[in-house]
Amino acid sequence: MSADHDSSNARSNGGGAGGGGPRRDARGRQRGAARSRGDARRTTTAPSERRKGTDPARTAAYDVLREVDGSDAYANLVLPPLLRERGIRGRDAGFATELAYGTLRLSGRYDAILARCLDRPLDRLDPPVLDILRLGAHQLLAMRVPQHAAVSETVGLARARTGAGSAQLVNAVLRRVAHTPLDDWLAQITADAPDELTALADTGSHPVWVARALRDALAGTGRDPAELSRLLDADNDAPRVTLVARPGLSDTDELADQRTTPGRWAPTALVLDGGDPAAYGAVRDGRAGVQDEGSQLVALALAAAPLDGPDTRWLDLCAGPGGKAALLGALAAQRDARLVANEIQPHRARLVTQALAAVPASAVEAVRTGDGRDVGQDEPGAYDRVLLDAPCTGLGALRRRPESRWRRTPGDLATLTGLQRELLASALDAVRPGGVVAYVTCSPHLAETQVVVADVLRRRDDVEVLDAPAVVRDVVRPDAPDTIDLGDRRDVQLWPHVHGTDAMHLTLLRRI
């Protein structure tokens, strides 16, 4: 051993071979400079109490995750009132929103990463601790949060909510997560997956059955199944807020300012670049609202679809919570038509009434509480236009409802598709010959779209399928920046990664 090496070793050990340097105590432990001088102050705070807690935004995001997991709550219903109650505004509110929603969307991806950083299965962790780890992973891997802040603030949250022991675990695991870049984590997950679909599902944070259904829907509507990766990524993007200017009540000129840009497709749409929609007077009084552009397009298409005969009585068969009913009501008022809005759930019927508050009373015949399956029998041939926005899995709105992908199961399909068939049969009975039914779902799943329509029409000889793409093209704003890509089909399937909307399905049917 050289002398240089030996002397450097001695320096690093704080003294010679005896280890009795001036900054070691009698037990050989290294002391800091202040303590060796005798002027250090010992903290009176126990380790379990140090750095206890975190900021209100992170705490709010954690509380949302616990409500979603523990009470089956919906994040979009829990977070806004929570932020208001706690006075969290501006950038802090934006941080809490992205942290909560982003963590929920990407929890499948984070679970796959966390499993590689733990010495126990994830299902052996207490759910609150797992939620805290997911929040930390999202800050480290998907947000512009410095590593030290992401780790220390999440550890503080753990100390405050789940105890000092779990805080040590959170600290250790998050440091392992931070050690590897996201791209390398995704490469590991892909390499370990048994097949390509599972790899896409795990890295894209979707259940495998959902990824398979979306791939099949792409193929079944004439698109390339290889688009699946782009679709999953689009589901994980935070959607921008879109406003609807209800015709005759408001217009896009009234809502246009430095925070808004015209919608891509609908003449009624404006995209809001940050801020509170309720800051607009037209939104507060119901002349405008918040509504995805895909939802606007399907309602506009029903109102524009060609029919034979009178056009005075319209029906929204499953109207809650009322966004499409409000747009249809505004359009009906311009044509001296009347809208009946039906909703089976009383609390949702009340939301419909609120949504229709600004629509002229002459255009709203009634808001009813009743089972849509009975309307066709009770009022056969009574309506000129019928909207059936059918209850569905919601697989087309996963970016807006971040928890729904983890709640739905393949077993839900049997119940929902049976209900959809009954509702569509009722809608077709309720419309008069020459009238039009719009069958709409916020799901692209083939079992809920093409299969339902085909099964119902197989039992009837009094219905024709209209050219829905042609109608949608007619309602797209004339100065749209692109030609809307709807394929060579009779129905319409919108996609987040293609159209920037929810994955809305539309089939237009006319009684003959």
Mean pLDDT: 91
Q: Note the beta-strand portion.
A: 5-15%
Assign an overall shape: globular
Q: Which class of secondary structure composition applies to the elements?
A: alpha/beta
How many alpha or pi helices? Answer: 24
Low-confidence stretches: 1-49
Radius of gyration: 29 Å
Helix content: 40-55%
Distance linking N and C termini: 99 Å
**Based on DSSP secondary structure assignment, what is the total number of beta strands?**
12
Largest sheet: 8 strands, mixed
Word description of this protein:
The structure is a single chain. By secondary structure, this protein is of the alpha/beta class. 48% of the residues lie in helices and 12% in strands. The chain contains 24 helices and twelve strands. Strands 5, 6, 7, 8, 9, 10, 11 and 12 form an eight-stranded mixed sheet that branches. A hairpin with a 6-residue loop joins strand 2 (260-262) and strand 3 (269-272). The longest helix has 19 residues, at 412-430. The protein is globular and about 70 Å long. The termini are far apart. Mean pLDDT is 91; it is low at 1-49.
Write the layout of secondary structure elements.
Layout: H1 3-12, H2 33-37, H3 56-71, H4 75-86, H5 90-105, H6 107-115, H7 127-142, H8 147-161, H9 164-179, H10 182-192, H11 196-203, H12 208-220, H13 228-235, E1 241-245, H14 252-255, E2 260-262, E3 269-272, H15 281-284, E4 288-290, H16 293-304, E5 313-316, H17 323-334, E6 338-343, H18 346-355, E7 364-369, H19 375-378, E8 383-389, H20 404-407, H21 412-430, E9 431-441, H22 450-458, E10 463-465, H23 468-475, E11 492-493, H24 496-499, E12 505-511
Parallel strand pairs: 5-6, 5-8, 6-7, 8-9
Antiparallel strand pairs: 1-3, 1-4, 2-3, 9-12, 10-12, 11-12
Helix pairs in contact: 3-4, 3-5, 3-7, 5-7, 6-7, 7-8, 7-9, 8-9, 10-11, 11-12, 16-17, 16-23, 21-22
